[in-house]
């Protein structure tokens, strides 16, 4: 197992780089898009709410692989060239943004609506109240579930292997099928994924416990 | 945009429906088993039994932090190393069940933990045994809180069955790829069909859960 | 407050590494395939189901059809009997060797080239088809042969296939994109994900036969002898497979099957066995 690792080190490292790259890119954009659609869903405007709802329901109920393959094989035929990495990252972004929209919406809605009313009656606009009063509180509630979304994102980035996206899983497939050391290769790939996801996962548990512990003390 | 009439001829639709059948049966079997195993594992981890809970915790943490694709490879290519040889469909069922059980176990443990520990103390001091308190007081409340997260996870399970195309499981996504692979004019219509079929299956799960949610809340 | 033990996540990681490093890669198909196949009157072949001419899923009846399939049927009939139950398990270039080693399939007949690397892990029969690697491009493409695969050219191949190793040798500057199977690879070529698709000429002719906008160019630049793969240590089985192949060639059955699949393929000259 160790020789497989050392012999193919550049490929493993390249894969790690692309996996992290796709995950971080998708995290950044899905945070932005997800927040926009979360705000649309709780918007006083009915049409905005419907648009937000449709977006979220669509991407939550269609497999990531279908979305990614669509961007890899259909979109380029319409004259917009997209590499495997780009198609995979776009698929990941759209897919994850629906989950983030749900997380952020739940976070905002868990903030007491009385706070919004109080802020409004103190002369703030809807946007100001949202920006200064509601969102800062919502963020604290949403950080642990967002962490889980990021872990899912890293795991889901393995979909890039289907579209030659150079990620860890893709490199693993190539190494496994050229060395015939299938299990050893995938074991190494597993360790590399765990090196990213396990610290995140334990960190999130810790944050969650600390913050909920802090809340309990405040209540007591 | 594509040859809709050709793509939607009966032999293609029938082929897609055959794939849908595999997707639905794979999902159904995996849902049943992963809910059962997930509940058991979640409880075991929550109960903090010395050694056992620690080991269960490690296994849950390892598996739920790996991509499902890897679990799929481990079951299909790896299990024969310990004498268990599975065809693509049972291998996918085992992989889905193992992976989703661990995801559900974490949701269930979290749900139980979120029910105020004071309730357990109150129930115990009213003379209920640990098992009785768990079964009658804690679990019903925890379960109600967990439903949205569990359903969301089960929808992910259905969607994730599409990853089994990598081991040539003849499910919906694979059959779709076979059809448009043989004639690229069918690509757009087939993608629309795939989207609609997956959406119907997944969305009906959310509808069922909303119904359950209302029944439980009432 | 509980102190955060920042090393705690290492424990499951180590557990995972230790567990998996104990996994060997030994072949588990130790039983004698030939006697088992005769006793159960059944045999399982790993075949392609996405490769026109060799093994392609017919959507109208759910059967896999092609040259490899017909050869597999004929070989099965000759070594086990006319009423043998023949199972076909669809494989990709990536999955076929693990599935053979694990015993999910008894033999592979899936456009598989006999190469020195593969001979280290499996045994091959005599050659049943002579292919050679070539390029498939869109009609009018500036790429006329492997010499045109320069820096910046994207070549599509299939994971686990011999052709991706070859192309890296003859065109080291080109970027190689590897997809999971031939259907995916050809779809990607048609979607403009690469400038050329490389694999064996027989497979490429199958693609261009149905899509005249794509042409095979430049002739073959490698020799790819296709053979049936069986597990190591299955000498009796392998001998019988070879006997069956020889007798098929002698009594004309091989020629019939070859003509059935390659008789009308324009431009296909250096194909089957002479």
UniProtKB/TrEMBL annotation, chain A:
It is found in: Cell membrane. GO terms for biological process: amino acid transport. Pfam families: BPD_transp_1. GO terms for cellular component: ATP-binding cassette (ABC) transporter complex. The chain crosses the membrane at residues 20-42, 54-74, 80-101, 159-180, 186-207. It is a multi-pass membrane protein. Its main location: membrane. Keywords: Amino-acid transport, Cell membrane, Membrane, Transmembrane, Transmembrane helix, Transport. Residues 16-204 form the ABC transmembrane type-1 domain. GO terms for molecular function: transmembrane transporter activity. The keyword Transmembrane applies. The keyword Zinc does not apply. Belongs to the binding-protein-dependent transport system permease family. This is GlnM. It comes from Schleiferilactobacillus shenzhenensis LY-73. The gene is glnM.
UniProtKB/TrEMBL annotation, chain B:
Keywords: Amino-acid transport, Cell membrane, Membrane, Transmembrane, Transmembrane helix, Transport. Belongs to the binding-protein-dependent transport system permease family. GO terms for cellular component: ATP-binding cassette (ABC) transporter complex. Residues 20-209 form the ABC transmembrane type-1 domain. NCBIfam families: HEQRo_perm_3TM. This is GlnP. One of its GO terms (biological process) is amino acid transport. It is found in: Cell membrane. It is a multi-pass membrane protein. The chain crosses the membrane at residues 20-44, 51-76, 186-208. PANTHER family: INNER MEMBRANE AMINO-ACID ABC TRANSPORTER PERMEASE PROTEIN YHDY (PTHR30614:SF41), MEMBRANE COMPONENT OF AMINO ACID ABC TRANSPORTER (PTHR30614). Its main location: membrane. The keyword Transport applies. One of its GO terms (molecular function) is transmembrane transporter activity.
Automatic annotation (TrEMBL), chain C:
Pfam families: SBP_bac_3. Residues 42-264 form the Ionotropic glutamate receptor C-terminal domain. GO terms for biological process: amino acid transport. This is GlnH. Keywords: Signal, Transport. The lineage of its organism: Bacteria, Bacillati, Bacillota, Bacilli, Lactobacillales. Residues 1-29 form the signal peptide. One of its GO terms (cellular component) is extracellular region.
């Amino acid at each position: 197992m160790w020789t497989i690792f050392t012999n193919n080190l550049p490929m493993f490292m390249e894969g790690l780089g692309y996996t992290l790259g796709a995950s971080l890119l998708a995290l950044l954009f899905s945070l932005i898009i997800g927040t926009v659609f979360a705000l649309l869903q709780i918007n006083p405007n009915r049409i905005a709410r419907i648009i937000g709802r449709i977006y979220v329901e669509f991407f939550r109920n269609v497999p990531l692989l279908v979305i990614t393959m669509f961007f890899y094989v259909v979109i380029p035929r319409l004259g917009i060239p997209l590499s495997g990495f780009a198609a995979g990252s776009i698929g990941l972004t759209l897919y994850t943004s629906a989950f983030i929209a749900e997380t952020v919406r739940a976070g905002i809605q868990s903030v007491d609506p009385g706070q919004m009313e109080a802020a409004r009656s103190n002369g703030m606009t809807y946007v100001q109240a949202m920006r200064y009063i509601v969102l800062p509180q919502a963020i604290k509630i949403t950080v642990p579930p967002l962490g889980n979304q990021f872990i899912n994102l890293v795991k889901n980035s393995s979909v890039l292997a289907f579209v030659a996206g150079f990620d860890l899983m893709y490199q693993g497939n190539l190494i496994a099928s050229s060395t015939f050391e299938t299990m050893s290769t995938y074991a190494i790939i597993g360790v590399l994924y765990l090196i990213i996801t396990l610290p995140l996962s334990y960190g999130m548990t810790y944050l969650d416990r600390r913050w909920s512990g802090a809340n309990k003390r405040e209540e007591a | 945009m594509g040859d809709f009439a050709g793509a939607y001829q009966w032999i293609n639709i029938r082929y897609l429906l055959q794939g849908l059948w595999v997707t639905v049966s794979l999902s159904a079997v995996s849902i049943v088993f992963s809910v059962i195993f997930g509940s058991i594992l979640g409880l075991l981890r929550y109960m903090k039994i010395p050694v056992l809970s620690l080991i269960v915790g490690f296994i849950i943490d390892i598996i739920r932090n790996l991509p499902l694709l890897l679990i799929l490879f481990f079951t299909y290519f790896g299990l024969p190393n310990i004498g268990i040889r599975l065809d693509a469909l049972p291998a996918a069922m085992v992989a889905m069940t193992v992976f989703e059980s661990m995801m559900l176990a974490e949701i269930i443990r979290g749900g139980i933990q979120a029910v105020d520990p004071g309730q357990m103390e109150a129930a115990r001091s009213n003379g209920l045994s640990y098992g009785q308190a768990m079964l009658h007081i804690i679990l019903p409340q925890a379960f109600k809180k967990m439903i949205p997260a569990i359903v969301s996870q089960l929808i992910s399970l259905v969607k994730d069955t599409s990853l089994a195309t990598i081991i040539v499981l003849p499910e919906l996504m694979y059959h779709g790829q076979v059809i448009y692979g043989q004639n690229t004019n069918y690509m757009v219509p087939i993608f629309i069909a795939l989207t609609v079929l997956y959406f119907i299956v997944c969305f009906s799960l959310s509808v069922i859960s909303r119904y359950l949610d209302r029944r439980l809340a009432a | 407050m509980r102190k955060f033990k920042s090393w705690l996540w290492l424990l499951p990681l180590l557990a995972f590494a230790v567990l998996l490093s104990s996994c060997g890669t030994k072949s588990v198909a130790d039983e004698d395939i030939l006697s088992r196949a005769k006793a159960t009157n059944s045999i399982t072949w790993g075949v392609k189901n996405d490769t026109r001419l060799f093994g392609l899923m017919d959507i109208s009846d759910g059967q896999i059809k092609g040259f490899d399939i017909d050869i597999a049927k004929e070989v099965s009939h000759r070594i086990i009997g006319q009423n043998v139950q023949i199972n076909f398990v669809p494989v990709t270039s990536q999955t076929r060797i693990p599935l053979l080693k694990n015993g999910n399939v008894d033999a592979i007949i899936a456009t598989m080239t006999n190469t020195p690397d593969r001979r280290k892990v499996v045994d091959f029969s005599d050659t049943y088809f002579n292919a050679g690697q070539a390029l498939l491009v869109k009609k009018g493409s500036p790429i006329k042969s492997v010499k045109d695969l320069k820096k910046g050219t994207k070549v599509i191949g299939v994971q686990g296939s011999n052709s991706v190793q070859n192309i890296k040798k003859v065109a080291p500057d080109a970027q190689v994109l590897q997809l999971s199977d031939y259907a995916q690879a050809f779809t990607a070529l048609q979607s403009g994900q690469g400038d050329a698709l490389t694999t064996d000429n027989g497979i490429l002719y199958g693609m261009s036969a149905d899509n005249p906008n794509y042409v095979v160019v430049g002739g073959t630049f490698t020799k790819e002898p296709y053979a049936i793969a069986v597990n190591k240590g299955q000498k009796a089985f392998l001998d019988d497979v070879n006997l069956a192949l020889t007798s098929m060639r002698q009594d004309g059955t091989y020629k019939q099957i070859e003509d059935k699949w390659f008789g009308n393929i324009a431009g296909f000259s250096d194909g089957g066995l002479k």
